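Worked example 4.2. Below are the chains of a multi-component assembly; read each line carefully before continuing.
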Amino acid sequence: MAWWRQDWIRRLVTSLAVVAVVELMTGPSGSFAAPTTGLIGSYNERVSVYGLFVGRRWMVFLVLALVFFGVWSAWLRWGPRTRASWRSTMATPREMAARRPVRWGFYLVLLVVAGFLPHLVNDPYWQSVLVEQIAVFVLLALGLNVVVGFAGLLDLGFVAFYAIGAYTTAWVTGALPTPAPFGIHLNPFWAIPVAIVFVMVAGILLGTPTLRLRGDYLAIVTLGFGEIITIFANNLYGITGGSYGSGGTSGSHPIPHFSISLGPIHYRWTLAPVPYYYLTLVFVVLFILGFSLLEHSRIGRAWTAIREDEVAAESVGINPLKYKVMAFAIGAASAGFAGVVTASQSNFIFPATFTLQLSINVLVLVIFGGMGSIPGVVAGAVVIQTVSMYLIHTPPAGFQESDLYMYIGALLIVTMIFRPAGLIPSRRRRREIILSEAGEAHADEVLTGDVA
Amino acid sequence: MGAFAHFLAGHFDTLRLEFWSLLVGGVANGFIYGMVAVGYTLVYGVLRLINFAHSEIFMTGGFASYFVLRAVMGTSVPSGWATFGVILVGIVVGGTAGALAATLLERVAYRTLRRRNAPKLAYLISAIGASYFLFNLAGKEFGRYNESMPQPYINHPVFTIFGAPVQLYYLVIVAAGAVMWLVLDRFVAATKLGRGIRAVAQDAETASLMGVNIDRTIAITFALGGALGGVGGFLFGLGSGVVYTMGFVPALKAFTAAVLGGIGNLRGAMIGGLILGVVESLSIAFVQAAYFDVVAFAILVLVLLVRPTGILGERLGRSA
Amino acid sequence: MSDLIFDVRNVTLRFGGVVSLNDVSLHQGRGEILAVIGPNGAGKTSLFNSLTGLYRPQEGTITFEGRNGVALSIIGKKAHRVSAAGVARTFQASRMFSALTTFENVKIGAESHRGIGVLGAMVRGPGTRRGEHESDQRTLELLSFVGLSAKANVISASLSYGDRRRLEIARGLATDPQVLLLDEPAAGTNPAEKIQLTELIRRVRDERGVSILLIEHDMKLVMSLAERLYVLNFGSVIAEGTPDEIRANPAVIEAYLGSSEQAEDRA
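Applying the procedure described above to all three chains together yields the following structure tokens:
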């Protein structure tokens, strides 16, 4: 064997390359005028680690690469044994977690913690992040999980449903240039059912023609659909307010906050995030319950059957199109509700909120958390959104807000390579991946259209 | 009714007056779409997958040629043979950068998954991740604004067709596109490597039994498609400048072109590109500029719903 | 109610320029065990795919007479509609839902023809629960019928070839069919499993009254099981008759046995 083909050399080169890319990602930014600032600066810039170590970034990079190489080599040598012992130590807790009362007890504790969370974080930034960036994204991830995780359909235009939910809210509360239906300006509470019905209908209308397509075509068509919704929202000034959003034209007024007036109970939500947090939390719990019941119902089983082998599913009498459209519509529901919350809480909506980037962001939450696993996608959404918002709030040196998507892209690749079933895998999905890798199953083969 | 007829008549007037100039622009755009579409089609042929990160190969070609042109040209605009030389440099650099980027992409985002026999969904997601990573990295390193490409010539009309001026820029695109495509077509049809590609496209398992090195063939396929995509990026950048997100819309249209011509079919990709370029260009007479990009997408949806195998039908193996 | 369950007339199926089925006519009586044999590539699986709505032949008619004596034209119907009408099938290479358990696989078949209510599935009202309970009972009964009760909670991908066939048969029966189409059920099974399978197929017909249409390469199995056979070669029917008649038919010996000898020579 040629010397450069030896395994340890390959590992060393890969380690150096990986760390070099990380160095580039975390280094300073450049521009067309000064391209070397980023490219060379990432390696040549001075660094000081708490004054203990002063040097250049490439030195750090070299040390990191060697550590990476060392850990990798060690893992190859002792990994299987470590993994086996890890498995045996984890066996008891895992068994415990599999028991229903324990699991439900754990979820109850989580719920209580979630209930106290706004009081634990007093910082107003983090309180609004809880609503706008975490709770809303949990809703979106839950919805996309139905489509991608349960039904195995890659939807890259999921943001469209979020946008439709928000714009419907603006419309029925009279905040758009288009007059509200029948001239009645509804309380946003009534916008919830209207918006959910609207997005579900939109899901059916979009799904019925496109869900006949093979999976990779579907991905592109949904991507285009997401873009088109944005183009229309941006340009139909008379209807959506165009790029100015709902507050652009004179005579328009803000989308109102929620308010309740039931007998003796009167309550108005305001700009303060905490009351919105509790309202959203209630709905998150409802959606989680509904979706997990659905997962274990015959509809969930039918989705699994279609995902694994569409031809076989069809030949036992399952109508794939019907179930796929159903997944689209049901998944859209939570996104529609998220749209209502966003619209009502922020008072104004703008097309710039509803970008393709947001679709990809939600996709990452689902993939990283674990396709098809409800605890997984909730955990994924909480973890990723918290880290993202932390980075934006207190950016480390060299970090810009727009770099976030670079990390998100990298996270997608890394998850797919190292942990394709995600952080908290769904049992079915993990089995499918293992079986597919052993050449045993055809899960997600729909994507290739290679049927009998 | 009368008002509507009037409206239509007005638009057809525009179409009649502008027809030839719209056609010329459309053909030029079509060549770029076609070159990029070839990348989708080649990769689809051997892997039965759509390479979602092809847009970033296009972008890489554009960026690489931008920096090299900036370095070799200085401030003055070259003329005569120097112009020709600079364009050639741009093409070579764009193509090489595209091929390198595609090969690297195949190594990182595809081969690791292929080794593991991962489900198809995994490839799509990994490629989407790669795409997001690459263009945002470019944005970080070079800024998130549009920069115009150094011009190797002063663009001017060379001749006219029915009164419509044909710009030098368009001639460069058409000439480069036609030559590259012919070379590629011959390469796939007549060389040993090309036969390997067709064999893998037809039946990977049998091909590997017959002694075709699958890994190498797939890498070469990515490189070929990447080269054309990279040149497409350079030619596009010459007219529209370079920016980190430049790949998204042209690649979506190129994909449309590939589907239109029949994905997996090399000649189909070029024909699809031309048709899409022309139809899209002529549609300017009917739709507002803001909705320009919607036209290509509408065509995509229509083709997928009505004739998903495209005009010339699928399969790389059969095409050449 | 006529006594024909399948009536196939002059069916021609082409893929591009390739003729896969050429003017095929055949019929199957209610309660009959019928077999289709022929060399590889003779069009047997294409015939099955046409009968179950996966392929759409360009010419001819396929009439299926279901439960209540209503004749149904199969051509142009989607596969799930054909299944709902009472045609079940297994696949040449077993196609199970590999990541699900044996029980879940069969249950999917048992519940696929009930109406679906999203709200019902989420709220779990008494109706939904009753439906679930019925499907569970039916699944358990079928698993014991095919002899897989002990493996109900096993992931189906870990079943042996013989058990996978049983599972596919149970899943097909769960849809409450009139006829069961078996595509090479004995492929990949060992001699002992073959005997059990033969017995199981006969029991499906005798105890459940489901007609059987069978493609099989194992001549011993076919000859002992089938009451009547059709022989396909190059997409055309070249012979029809009882096992004894087929054994004596020179055209069959020429086309079929000749080619299978060649196949053995190659191997």
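Take a moment to check your reading of the output against the notes. Strands of chain B lie at 157-161, 164-167. The radius of gyration of chain B is 20 Å.
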